[in-house]
Amino acid sequence: MMRKLLLLFVFAILTLNTSCQQAPAEVQSVSAQEVYDAVYNKSTPGLQLVDVRTPEEYGVSHLKDAQNICVTEDDFKEKVAGLDKDKPVYVYCKKGGRSARASKILKEMGFKEVYDLQGGITAWEEEGLQTDTE
To answer: What are 50's strand-pairing partners?
Structure first.
């Protein structure tokens, strides 16, 4: 009887311990204004801004200071592995589909803070925010 109680107690402790551990944070969807504030008003120092569109799309227009790492290329994981997993990463694409894919990959790779620009560069431009060209 005592052994059963001890096993039940140990099981309860283990269950409580694992259920109280925080699950990794999910990708946060952020507005164009939130990205603007983080990037250009320096509200998030040390952040990494990544345009996950093709190099051709990036060449037409992109956010200032963004680096281009195309999510549809075979070497995407290899290239993003060079980013700092402990610093926030902001990703965007044209409308949000590819950046959602990239965000999921980044989270799976262990990046702690991943932010996805809701509506992509299209939403950015609709807000009248400035882009760069090459």
So the answer is: 67, 91
